Amino acid sequence: MVISIGSQDGMVAGTEISIKHNDQIIAHAKVTSVEVLTSGADLVMSSLAPGSTVQIGDQVLVSDKEIGK
Questions:
Q1: Are 54 and 47 contacting, i.e. CB atoms less than 8 angstroms apart?
Q2: Prediction pTM value
């Protein structure tokens, strides 16, 4: 997936993130690549909540601190 958080926001490769939708954590992912404005991450499929899908606009949390969308 592509995240609109990049190195200018402090993102680094290897960061573990949580994906939040409607105030609920629905999945986890690991950042694999970082550009200035965006990052790429691999979704941990086993962490995806049953019946959930990651959608544009979902929030990204790093260590329980929201740093972007």
A1: no
A2: 0.84
Query: Which residue spans within the chain are E strands per DSSP?
Result: 2-3, 16-21, 24-34, 39-43, 59-62, 65-68
**Are 19 and 54 within 8 A, CB to CB?**
yes
Q: Are 66 and 47 in contact (CB under 8 A)?
A: no
Burial class (CB in 10 A: 0-12, 13-18, 19+), 11: buried
> Is the pLDDT higher at 44 or at 66?
44
Contact 43, 31 (CB under 8 A): no
